Amino acid sequence: MAPPDSPAGGGDDRPVYTVTRLNHEARGLLEASFPLLWVEGELSNVARPASGHMYFTLKDDQAQVRCAMFKGKNRLLRFKPGDGMHVLVRAQISLYAPRGDFQLIVEHMEEAGEGALQRAFEELKRKLSAEGLFADDIKRPIPSLPRRVGVITSATGAAIRDVLTTLERRFPALPVVVYPAPVQGKAAAPAIAEALATANRRAECDVLILTRGGGSLEDLWSFNEPEVARAIRASDLPVVVGVGHEVDITIADLAADLRAPTPTAAAERVSPDRETLLRQFRTERDRVTRALERRLRDRAQGLDYLRRRLVHPGKRLRDLHERNHAARQRLARALALRQRDRRRDLENLTARLHRAGPARRLPRNREHLHDLHERLVRATTQTTLPARRQRLQSLVRELEAVSPLGTLSRGYAVARKDGQILRKAQEAEVGDKVDVHLGEGRLDCRVEGLGESDLPDSHN
User: Which segments constitute the Exonuclease VII large subunit C-terminal domain (predicted)?
Assistant: First the structure.
C-alpha cells in the first residue's frame, strides 16, 4: 500500500505534500518569521458579518492584502472604519489554510495621520519627562497681583481677542504687552521660543501667557516641539499656557508653570478679579472702620473719666499746703515726744551707771582681794605646801627603788642583741654581737661561749 503523501501505486520516493499540509506549514513559517508589525494603507471592501468579526482589504497604489479583525479586538476601536479611510494597523502575518489566502490578523487599528502624530507625541512626552522638564518641583509660582502681563500668540487670531477681553473685564488697570508670534506651521516653534527669550530679556512683565485657539493635533503641533518646552523652562518669568480647548493637551501645557484649558482661562488665571478685590477691599475697609470707631469710643470714654478726675491747680495747691502743714505739725509733735523719751532714758542710764561705777566698787573689791591673799598665804605656808613636799619625796624614793638606772648603779648590766634585751643565755649564739649597758657607759661584746649562771636562783 503506498504512503498517503506518495502517488498511488508508484514506487517513487519523492516527497509529496498534500495541499492541507502545504498550507499549514506555510502558515507556520509566516507566523514564526514575522513578529507583530505596523502596516499603513487604505481600507476597502470593509465587511461586518453577523459574527461580529470584521474583514477588509488594506491597499496602497501598488498592492493589497486581505485582513481580518476579530470581534474581541474591533470592539475597542474609537472610530468606525469605512472604505477609503487611511489607517495604521498592528497585525500578525498569517495564511488562511482552507483557501490558501495570505492575510493579516489585525489586533489594533487607528487613523493613520492622527495616529502617527499621537505616537510621536507620546514618545516625545516620555523623552522630555525623563529629562525632568515636567517635574512639579521646578514649577514657578504665579504672582497673585502682577504689575504687567505678557501675551505670546498670533496678533490676528481669536486667542488674543479672548485674552484681552478677559483681562479688560477682570482688571482693566492691568497693563498688557503682546509679543506676536505665529502659532501654526514650521516657523511657529522657533518664533515662539524667540518670543519667550525676548520677553525675558526685556523683563517688563511679571508673568507670560502662551496661547492659541483650538485645532487638530496637527494644527497644534508647534506647541509639541521640544524647543518650545525647553524655552518655557529656560524662562525666568513664570509661563501660563492655554492652548486650544479643554481636551487639548500639548507638550507646552506639561512644561508650563500652570496649564489653563483655554485662552480665556489663561487670562483668568493670571489676572486678579476686580469684583473680588473690591469685595475684599470693602470688607477690609469695614473692618478697619469698625476698629477705628471702637478705638475712638474707648478713647472718648477714657477722656470723660480723666475729665471727671481733673482738679483745679489752685485747689490742689491749697490741699497740698494744708496737708503739708498738718504733716509738719505731726512731725514736730513726734520729735518732741521722741526727744522727751530719749532724755528720760539718758537720765535712767546715768543713774544706773553712777550706782554701778568702779569708783564705788573699787574699795570693796580691794578689801576682798586682800582677804583672798591672806588665805592663800596661810594655805601654802602652813598646811598645803609641807604636805605636798613630803608626798613628793616619798614618790621620788619609790621611783628610785624601781628604776633600772638604780639597779645598774649597784653593779648590774643589761645585755641587748639587735635591740632586744637578753634574759637567757640561750637567746644568743656564739659569735653574736651583744651590747652591754652598765651603770655608766656601754660595751660592744661578742659571744665567745655559753654557760650556766653562777648567781643564786632568784626563784629559790
Answer: 133-446
